[in-house]
Structures are given as structure tokens and as C-alpha cells.
Amino acid sequence: MLTDISVLFQIAGIGIILALIHTILKQMGKEEIAQFATLVGFIIVLYIVINGLSDLFNQIKSVFLF
Amino acid sequence: MKWLGAVLLIIASTCIGMYISNRFEKRPKHIRQLQSALQLLEAEITYSQSPLQMAFRTIANQLPFPVSQFFHLLSEDMKTAETDFTILWNKRAEELAELASYRKNEVEILKQFGSSLGQHDFIQQQKQIRLALTHLERELEDARDEHHKYSKLARSLGVLLGVFIVLLLV
């Protein structure tokens, strides 16, 4: 099953921190920067997820093609 | 070892946030010091009618650190140097800008005021001082606004960005 759980915690932590940064920036009236920070965080998380997915596909390839 | 690095990173970014918020906090204070320095200079010029070097020394004795050093060094310079007064003033003003947390605007006001110093009679000089004081008042308002807005923001953002980077690297 899922052996390496730490990536989940990492993504959850990034989400929490980004939510905090977003709220603080929004409170101080820097809406654009808040949006931008959220976007950057989203891209980072997407990168992590895509890395995991590429691992998965490689494994599938190695099961069926060889 | 890994955790030690993480803790160090968080501490470092917290310190950077503190430093930035400190700059925001100190700017209104330093501008106010400059204002009181100019007021003292006005009193020295109009009432005591002392020469600039003496006036600078009295001002340096009455004010706290960054501004006092500026006037102290200026009075020392005027004793020895043979160059133009404006050049001396500009040089020391740039040094002061590095010591205190002034922006370009304040330095520009200070330089403009320095170029007018010693060129006119009492009344004109008094007008120049009043003008510089009004400019500084505007900057002070600005600095206060920014202080309220950004000093807390910088502090919390420093901590949060540290935690964020640590999470990325774990």
C-alpha cells in the first residue's frame, strides 16, 4: 500500500502555511500579492504531485511492457 | 542534523523579517529626530546667531545617535576640510542615510536643504528651514502609514516563509 506517507504531510503543511500567508496579505490589503503567493504554492504542489504520478506511470510501464 | 538545519533556517528567516519590520519601525522615529534637529538649527541661527560649526556641535550634543553623528562629523569636517560645504554636507547625508533607515526622499530633502544653507540672510534661511520641515512632515506621515501597514506584516511573513521553505526542503 502507501509506504511513504510524508509527501502527504508535506503537501498539507504547504497548504496550511499558504493559507496563513494568504490571509495575512489579504488583511494588509495586498490582494494581488496574496493571489500570486497562492498561485506559486499551487504550482509547487502541482510539481510534487506530478513527480509522484510519473513514478506511478513508470511502475505501470515496467509491469506491463517488460 | 536535518532538524538542526530546519531550525536554523526558520531562525534566519525570522531574523530577516524582524530586521525589515525594524526598519519600518525606526523610519518615523529617525525622521522626527531630523525634524527636531532642523528646529534646533533654526533656533541656533535666529536666536543665538552662532556660526554653523558651533551650531552643529550643540545640535550633536542634544540629539540621539544617528542624527547626532551626522552633525558631529560635519562639525569636525568643517574644522579641517577645504572643500565646498555643500560637498561635505552631501557626503555626510549619504552616510547618514545608510546609518538611519531613510529613503531617497528624505536624503533628497536633506541635500536640497544643505545646498541652501549659508547662502541667505536670517529670514530667507528661516524660510528654507520651514520648507524642509514641511517636506519632512509629509514624509513622516507617509512613514507612519507604512509602519502601521507593513511592520507586522514583515514580521509574520518572515516566520511563515521560513516554515514554508523548510516544508519544501523536508
Report on the structure:
The complex is a heterodimer of chains A (66) and B (170). Chain A is built from 2 helices and no strands. The longest helix of chain A is centred in the C-terminal third of the chain and has 34 residues, at 31-64. With 66 residues, chain A is mostly helical. In chain A, helix 1 runs antiparallel to helix 2. The two termini of chain A are 22 Å apart. The model of chain A has no long low-confidence stretch (mean pLDDT 88). By secondary structure, chain B is an all-alpha fold. Chain B has one domain. Chain B has helices at residues 2-48, 52-62, 65-80, 85-99, 104-116, 122-169. The two termini of chain B are 12 Å apart. Classes of the chains: A mainly alpha (66), B mainly alpha (170). Chain A binds chain B through residues 6, 10, 13-14, 17-18, 20-21, 24-25, 28-30, 44, and chain B through 149-150, 152-153, 156-157, 160-161, 163-164, 167-168, 170.
Q: What's the β-strand tally of chain B?
A: 0
Shape of chain B: elongated
Low-confidence stretches of chain B: none
Count helical runs of chain B.
Answer: 6
Chain oligomer state: heterodimer
Overall structural class of chain B, as computed from helix and strand content, comes to mainly alpha
Percent strand of chain A equals under 5%
Unreliable spans of chain A: none
Number of strands of chain A: 0
Fill in the keyword field for this structure.
heterodimer, A: 66 residues, mainly alpha, 85% helix, 0% strand, elongated, B: 170 residues, 6 helices, Spore_III_AC/AD (chain A), transmembrane (chain A)
Give a quick rundown of the structure.
The complex is a heterodimer of chains A (66) and B (170). With 66 residues, chain A is mostly helical. Chain A is 85% helix and 0% strand.
Chain-wise SSE layout:
The complex is a heterodimer of chains A (66) and B (170).
Chain A: H1 6-27, H2 31-64
Chain B: H1 2-48, H2 52-62, H3 65-80, H4 85-99, H5 104-116, H6 122-169
